[in-house]
Each structure stands twice: as C-alpha cells, then as structure tokens.
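Methods — Computational structure assignment.
A single polypeptide chain was analysed. Its primary sequence is given first, followed by the predicted tertiary structure written as structure tokens.
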Amino acid sequence: MAVRVLSACLAAGATRTAWAQGEPRRVGWLVTGKRANAEGFVNGQFGRLASRGWRLGTDLVLVPRFAENDLRALPALARELVATKPDIIVTGGSGPATAALGATRSIPIVVMYAAAPVEVGLVESLSRPGGNLTGTSAASPEFAGKLLDVLRSVRPSIERVAILRNPDNLGIQQYTPHAQAAAQRLGLKLHYFETRQPQQLRPEELDAARPDAIYVINDFVMGPLYATLARFALERRILSIGVDRNFVRAGGLLSLGPDQDEMEQVLVDYVDRILRGASPAVLPVREPTRFNLTINRRTAAAVGVTLTQELLLRAHEVLDAAVPPA
C-alpha cells in the first residue's frame, strides 16, 4: 500500500515551472514494508513522473526509508528521514503516520489509509486536522460488519468466521466492537487470530477453530500471506474475504474495500496543493466514498459457491485467478 501511495503522490506533481527551477524538491517516503518489494514497483512509475515534467534526480529527489516489516524501527527511521529535511513526507497507515508525527510537527505529512485517525490522535478532527498531517482514512470502523454481511449473503449457512489481523496495526481495535455487533446480528461466532509477522501464522490453530470462512484484514503482515490463506480456504472449501483486491488476485474468493483510485486521486490533489503552499491543517482527511466488490469466479466454483446474478451485478471486478503454487 505504501508503494501505491508514493507513486500516486509523485505522479501528481506540483506546478512544473515552480519545481523545474531552483533546488530539487525532496520527497520523504516512510515505508513499513521491505525494500525488495517496493523498489521494483516504484521504478515502474518513473514514466508517469516524466510525463508530468519531472526529471528524477534533477527536479525531484526521493528519500525513502524502509522498516523491513519491523514496526519498532519506524520511530528511528522517521527521525532519520526528518533529518534529511524533506519538503513533504508520504506514508501509509496509522502506525507509520504516528512515527512521522513523533519526529516532526512542521514538515507536511500526507498519509493514505489511516485507521481511526481521530481516535489514535493523528488529527483533531476529520474536517479540520489542525496540524501538519492530512490525507485519507481507512474505511470507518462501522465498515467492519459489511464484510460479514457479504459472507452471509454468499453462504447463509456459515456459523464461524476466523478474523486474521496484526494486533500492532494501530487503530485496528476500533473496528472490533462493530464486527462483534454485526456478528451478533447475523448469528455468527468470531475467532480472532493475531499475527505480528508472516512466519508466525499457525494454520493448525486456524484448523482447530473449524471456521466456515476467513476474513483477512490487510496490512504489511497479511499481504505476504494472501496466497497461503487463499490456499488454506480453497483446500477446505470454505469462504474467504479481504479488504484488499490483491487478496482475490492471489486466489481468495472475495474482497470488499475502498476504491484505491479514488484514494490515490485525493493524495495526488493534496500533495499538489501542499507543495503549492496549502496547509495540511485545513485540508480535511478524506474518507472513502466508493467501495469495490471483487469476486474470484474460479475460487467460487472450487469451494462450491453459486454466484447469483445480483452478486455479479454488484461486483466491480470479476476475476478467474488461480492460487499461486506453494
């Protein structure tokens, strides 16, 4: 996700003339994930920068810092990044945003998908952040129950749902009461499985809960596990759903989440406006307004799900994606 944040923001640019003259602008990039997973994608976006008049290394200097999936490294990396005196810092998620705020209260910060930004203290309010940080939020906590509604509509007989999450994902606890309320309404029992690193996943513990469905909350920990979790569900012919459409591309059954293009356009606009002189203190944190349902037709057939016409009409994208080999 943090990689998509950077490419969206940089592709927007500010005024070509203002940035083409004088010292190159420094764009700090604080990334939770691994350098190896990020650099290739970013390199592929340089064409977008060139099409907007940017010459990397001349008009624009990228200053990335990678936590290599170690959340404990974020505060020190943020301080190191601030010491390079960037013009703006781009990041993704409430954890990295908190680290960036802890390192500077003056350099503008643009964040994508901040979970519960008011509740975790990133901003004073969504409408008026009041400090040096703005951007987009993740779906509101109430959204947590929507995925359970989709699971029940696909297979009404389900009773037990395993929710996989990273407990260190800042703000994620705000979603739990809403998921529980939806589960009570639907007559579902939720089992939480918390994993701080991909290698800590224990499939045998999942098996012991005998879930009828798995529900994956995306972040840098769960992303590398998408194919593993999709395969787990497929082998047991149970349902699987996530917030990230990449879960479906890895063989998962369903995803329901914010429209990434919409969120990236907000970031494009905000980075541009801030670099033109706008204050992040008065740029509202934007919540998602469009949510996309993605369906994997191949997985549906494999787990015995009949896709109704109503569900297919709701879908933004219907794929035929196989689970990658183990």
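Note: Residues 16 and 53 are 6 Å apart (CA to CA).
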